[in-house]
Amino acid sequence: MDFTFSPEHTALRRMIREFVEAEVAPIAAELDREHKVPYEVMRKLGEIGLLGVCFPQKYGGMGAGETGYCILMEELGKVCTSTATNVGAHIGIGAMVIHLDGTPEQKEKYLTPLSRGQKIAAFGLTESNAGSDAANIRTRAVREGDSWILDGGKVYITNGGYADIITVMAVTDPALGARGGVTAFIVETDWPGFSVAREEDKMGIRGTSTAELVFEELRVPHENVLGKVGEGFVSFMKSLDMGRLTLGAACLGGAQAALDWSVRWAKRRRLFGAELAHKQSVQWMIANMATEVEALRSLVYRVAWMVDTGQPFTQLAAMCKMYGSEVASRAIDMALQIHGGLGLTRDYPIERAFRDARIAEIFEGTNEIQRIVIATNIFREHGVRIRP
Amino acid sequence: MDFTLNEEQRMFRNMFRDFAAKEIAPHAEEMDHQETLPPSILQKAANQGFLGATLPEDYFGAALDSVSYAMLIEALASASVSVAMTIASHVSLVAMSILAHGSDAQKEEWLPALAAGEVIGAFALTEPDAGSDAAALQSRAVVQGEEVVLDGVKTWVTNGATAGLFLVFARGAEGVDACLVPRDAPGLSVGYREPTLGLRSVSFNTIYLEGCRVPLANRLGAPGQGWTIAQQAQDRLALAVAAAALGVASSAIDVAAQFATERIQFGVPIGQKQAIQNYIATAVTEVEALRYLLYHAAWQADQEGLDAFDVSVVKVFGARIARSVTNWMLQVLGGYGFMEDYPMARKYRDARTLGIVGGPTELHSFRIAQHVFAGRDLEIAL
Q1: Are A170 and A181 in contact (CB under 8 A)?
Q2: Which CATH superfamily hosts domain B121-223?
Q3: What pTM value is reported for the model?
Q4: Which stretches in chain B have pLDDT values below 70?
């Protein structure tokens, strides 16, 4: 066993950290306050190759694997959850489906500009009646000669308001449903029939676009079918597994930042004649945070290693997402408590972190769904098939 | 033992709930997003007698008993925690301090105006380096002839933006003094308003006192009595915070339970799912425990006076329950819970502040432990 990072990954982390400090940290509060998407940061991340961190060099990527991608998400998560979310939706789910199931032509045409940040991706799965119950989607795709005609819509699509390319799930055979009747398509958002209906006003991750999308007689060429017709659900689930792991990595960054802020404040703030560091209530919170952060770090990078070495990881990715989001929420909650009134003011980053953290327990599959995934995998090994 | 509400309390409760549902709830989202509290809402509350809720009728108060007052704050908070805390600060911190410690002249001058909502009260205790710690208080009160001269900076002054009267605490010759400072007193200026996570319609301002002069007759209570006045006021507020916690938590359950009957996933309303049932069952259990802990503490206050131990217990428990219940009820709503178009995100943000305002949980936990160890002859220090 060896728990050290390779020299390449260590160098990558240093490079990412420098970028994040210089380009992301100074604007994080503004993105939240002004409800702005970090277009410029996304472009720069693409220019230095980070939007293709885990994709092959052949398609404009860095080839740093899932481990490299987790490092990116962890470092972004420390400073700006919104930017991490933009990047996660772009790489981790939007472009990931193309990387996993695209043809060489599709990768050449789409993955390469996505890796370089020349195009931005989103992942179109959720509908108003199909959230956790993803198999219940209603968007229809009907074959017409060499094309498919898409009708329907998606809600709560991260990056949806400004993406150039959206990987969309649609029903191609209602009789078969999720088992063979759902297909994934690559959709370009400047095609006729595509429109953005609205942008959501959210409690946190306000530096992201969460959009409702409408498809009206949207014509998609057959060559843009991703993977095989009828196997879209399988493609998307694989991509979601990857996204869950890296969301756990972003949560690790958020939790680590909460711990760092808390330690700094506890060293400085004096109450009742001593620094908070000398108060056992505060020591307990710090000790709990630090233990959970270390447990999460080990889990995240172990699963990244499993992905990079080709081992099955679905159950562990669900654990990363579920545990990571809960560790981050707890850590940030404790950081807010340690900061007292200062933690409540919007002039200070803890308040933003608190609002940002909460969504991680909900999106990319609620933590209830993660528990179902974990329990399903466990019981399957024991011959019991769980229905959601 | 008798756990029933009397006829009058039942009537009050219905009236409070009606008021909250009709006059506050329809405006709660917008008020929160605009970070304002329209004076018309406070005026309507004043017309109902809520701004003098626990003041005697002699001063045009509604003379509510403590249980009814708790139910008022609970009902207001079920619609808007911001409105509840604005009114609770006005009543519990300012009006009731004057009633308890004021001279007849001070009561005559201020209480009818406070009850009528003509003047809103603000409580100015916290300083940049003194939140929960009295010994660290830096502001100074110096008697010069027939005047008191106040100097210092106060932060997080609740209702600071709109108040006509500030109850200011400063270090005097014999300890902490309390002073009634009208907004137009020379040398008082209202500064920065903190933008906050929750309670966004409550104003929390910095107040500057620069050679601020008020007549000596404006000193509340005896010289050096200020810290006692502040402690009693904060105990009253802490009880009101627990009532707000109950209101926000129980209203969050209402929203989530309704959602769970309407939201269909996997072919059934999500209320059919055991995870959701467990969240709701746990939340209801916690809220019912809080309800009777709170009503007991309030009832006790009317029997033998407010008990500091009871207050801390219900404050710690209330803040924890509000936090956990709004958190789980938000989870029931999933993505909808995170959207600012629905009330749950606001309830969640508001609930979180309750573990800090009215004294942080750690301070009240210390007081609980102090009480426990005092019975065992162990004196503990912060």
Answers
A1: no
A2: Butyryl-CoA Dehydrogenase, subunit A, domain 2 (2.40.110.10)
A3: 0.92
A4: 131-132, 134
